[in-house]
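note to self: dont lose this again. the chain is below, predicted strucutre after it. 159 aa total, dont forget to put it in the shared folder this time
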Amino acid sequence: MKAVTIKQLKDELTHKSASELKELCLHLSRFKKENKELLTYLLFESHDEDAYIQSIKEQMDVHFSEINTKSYFYIRKSVRKILTLTKKFIRYSKKKETEAELLLYFCRKLKDFKPSIKRSQRLQNVFDSQIKLIKKAIEKLHEDLQYDYQLELDNLLDE
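---
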């Protein structure tokens, strides 16, 4: 996600009511470095969560394609960086559906990654810990969504 300019943010803020501005600022105060990205999400992308998720998936694809595969050290380092970025975007959204969707996608990319993560216990541990987080996120969803995401998770684990 690319942050917009301060002027664009300022213009968008003029269209918000006082109570909306208050909520935006309170939400913003919880973050430090990523304030501009968070405001960009809140003002421009929060209304279309599907497009937001898709843009993050595209970013993940790019990052996974750029991983140096010469050693597992570099792979681990890159995977941790991708996961950190993904979790930051999940934090912006605060929606369990987004969390489940993005973590499932991350795990799918990690499982399909070549060379296999099964040769690195640390990478396997990252995968396993994200599976646990996905299960927690799925538990907090509506029953219909739980079923859909659980099917997707089962497919991921069965392969």
